[in-house]
Amino acid sequence: THLCIISGAPVSVIVGCYRYTGDLRTTLNWFGLGYTQLHVFPTSFLFSPGDDSLYRRVGGHTTNRTADTTAVVLNWSRFQNVVEITALFCDPSLEHTLHTVVVWNNNPKPLSKSDFSECIRERLSIINSPSNEYFKARFTACAQASTPYCFIQDDDYFVLPEVIISMLDTADPVVHTSVAWLGHGAMFPRSLAVDFLALMQHLNMTDVEQKMADNYFSIMRNVVPRPWRGQAFTVGTEGDERNKKHFIRATEFLQSVLDCQDSDCSEIPFVDTSLGSVHVGYRPSRSVCRGVPCILETSISNLPTEALELQASSLQQILTKEDEFMLKTPHHILQHYLDHPLSRAVDGLPNTAFQSLYKGSQGDFITLDTLEPLGAEWYNVELVALVDAGTAQIFQQSNFQMRSHDSDEPVATSSTVRCSSVRSSLFSVWHNLKECSVQMLSGDSIVDPSARLFSVRLEHDVDVRWRIYEIWMRGVYST
Predict the structure, then answer these.
(1) Could you give the C-alpha distances from 238 to 156, 230, 234, 466, in angstroms and in order?
(2) pTM of the prediction?
């Protein structure tokens, strides 16, 4: 199958045509009149990609997994949103990931399973709360779950199935979100919800504080969270001030726990008081992929160095330090961070790009994790990227490696990088783009069927920035 985009006025002209094997999610008005975005997942963006009909995008599959996660969504005033989110949770693509879907109804109007016709009754649980428990309800529902993991999100945010799958595949005791924006989608062990509820009782937190639990969870855990998404949002200055108030209160509670000298202090639940939690250390940036489950990771920073070295003499300075950084950082740098995050390289939008803030440095790396070992069924596997001319040069001066999830010893590939110009375009920027690929596994000799991490590592400093429009794995699957 080929996808062709046609301009209809004043003359019908094919402006882009390429082999298409992905899922066409939405449509795009190419002339900017009320457009929505077009997410495409082809095996090649070249006008004449050659005989690639056997190629498929490589990504994690979940059919061999036992569902071990409970999804929780709260209902208050956006019931239709909750219906659509629940339908997604109950989609067959997540049946090996989500065991149970819980709808916690904070609204006084009762709900029943018949309100959610697209969800299998056995997988659905409805809790009609006698009162509005606000955000505390997320953790109560999770604590009551029968699975070891929970996934929570707001009713005004849409999280794709491949994102949920990818988050679970890398789940660990660190909550997968930024400081307080759990509603963007957060995955964590059920045991943390149990301990968090116990902590709030132990500290005699007020009813209002407990209901605003989202603002306390990450801070009081005292472990640097792993962010997966970009800019958070709160509607109105009133919401901002409320959040700041509870953030500061959370740091006060945390400080009291850390300063505790009583004999039973070691029994306080949830808070990590180990010295290891104090040191942030090196943390590469990560993003989940659209289209197929995978994770993109990089050492390339998209923020100034000083942003990674902020220190405070007290917990209460958290927001002050943030404000100071925002004030002294030039607007164009902040805008660059928002416009070119790592997720732009795996969002299925070939007119958006991840772009480094600085020129390429020796040791810079980008790694694609396919989440599961390739196995012997895959051959002619390639790492592919849609890049600008400068990044094509970077690829020519990099080495390529692969390794299994359990190994620290990468295997280098001896294959050469091939870059071809994208001759026909769907977007005006394409006339300068190149598709670069390197074969990671040979069809004649599969180096390691357990490989799942594939990396590009720059060998020396270069005078250009990284700019990646899309990066993916492709190969031939032998059934």
Answers:
(1) 19, 22, 9, 40
(2) 0.82
Percentage of the residues of the chain whose pLDDT score is greater than 90:
46
Distance CA 358, CA 464 (A): 8
Distance CA 60, CA 362 (A): 30
CA distance 406 to 450: 9
pLDDT digits (tens, 9 = 90+) for 135-186: 999 999 999 999 999 999 989 888 888 889 888 876 554 443 335 478 888 8
Number of neighbours of residue 312 by Cβ within 10 angstroms: 13
Q: Tell me the C-alpha to C-alpha distance, in Å, between residue 414 and each of 393, 400, 402, 411, 450.
A: 18, 8, 11, 10, 18
Question: Which ranges constitute the DSSP H helices of 314-430?
Answer: 318-328, 331-339, 389-396
Helix, strand, coil percent content, the chain, rounded in steps of 5: 30, 25, 45
Amino acid at 391: T
* CA distance readout (Å), 25 to 35, 226, 443: 13, 28, 32
Q: Measuring CA to CA, how many Å separate 35 from each of 14, 31, 38, 170, 464?
A: 19, 8, 9, 35, 33
State the angle between helix axes of 214-221 and 237-258 in degrees (0 to 180), rounded to the nearest 10. Answer: 30
Q: How do residues 294-342 score in pLDDT, each as one tens digit?
A: 999 999 988 887 665 556 656 667 777 777 888 888 999 999 999 999 9
The amino acid at residue 331 is H
CA 374/CA 381 separation, integer angstroms: 9
